[in-house]
Amino acid sequence: MQDVIRHERERAVARRITAPDLAKWPNSSLDRAGYLVDWHIFVGPDARTLKLKQLAFTSTRHQRAVCMCHALSADGKFLAASFDTSASDIFVWRLPDGLLVQCLRNQGHSKPVRSLSFSPNGPTLVSLGSYDETVIIWDVQRGCVLRHLIGHHSRVASSAYSLNGALVATADMTKIMKIWDTSTGACLCSFNLNEHVYQITFSLDSSRLWIRAGLLYFLYDVQSYNRITVLRHKRDNPVGFSMSRQGDRIVTGTYHGNGVTIRDAVTGRELLTVDDERKLVTPVAFSPDGAEVLVVCQGSRMALAFDSRTGQRRHTFELSHVPHHIAYSPNGDYVVLAGHRGSLEVYNAKSRTFVGKSEGFWDDAVLQEVVFLPDSQTILSHFSRTPGSHEPLRLCNIQDVVRLR
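RE: above sequence
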């Protein structure tokens, strides 16, 4: 079965550019397409070692490029990324066969791109340049600029689309937030947070905006642009954050074990504090059905699942590494717990049974993000490494592991 799965992956990427491909994507290319790399995994009670294949993406197979940023389309069919050696180029690949379908370049950015966001409801993409003041909305399929958003006067560092696709929020290094109308490019609102912005999250109905700035979280009403509340923590306690898929609640935790709190996502009002004899730290995450929150125990190889309404502990995951990232599959079938160096452990989220694990990569590889695609089977891993080193974006398929159990 191991050989069968490997051959299936090899056939999937043994692609040819067809006439329909060229009709839809005239700039498609095999030159910088995704390519297969080995994936060593351990499955079963005897921890059998198996070798499968992952799909990897970089600016080229030969340059030692570090991924600066990436974005997945809402339907999980496309991956966009920018690299530190690719000037201001943005590469767009089709998943899962890895065909490079578009390269966006030479239309506004003067430096490598540092932030990317796909529109939730169409083939458009927002990009931010690293040291320029440019915000660009792209038509990905045509490979052209739809709009330049003009108004920032320093480097733009963060961006987010509203979930209805009508708005884009951006923040620059002078701590200025702006909200834009994507249909016209008009700036609807501008305000100063007096803190550097690291994360922007729209509510499910696009009526609220959560902003992580410095060590604080701000909640704004998008219609009136009024500040609703501020979540304040001690200065030495940065906050981790997760919003339920239902959009009704958020859960926050700190890096120093000073409490995990569930709040109303509309008002910011505290609903529940999760207590345990162990110190609970970020990362924190809601299950897709909102019924539980998963929390890491400080300094241990352990994660705890709690009932999100009562705070009662439901389950303990005993791991082989200290987890630094958590991700549930969208359908709630799986949960992946990832270590700082890229170790992955996958469990059935309902039965709590172990599915499989893979070890980390190199000593200088640091896992930045692990996320499931909408198919609930494929995991995207994003690593960073020391300057000048190379580590591609990687896609692995959980179903390959399940079939080998």
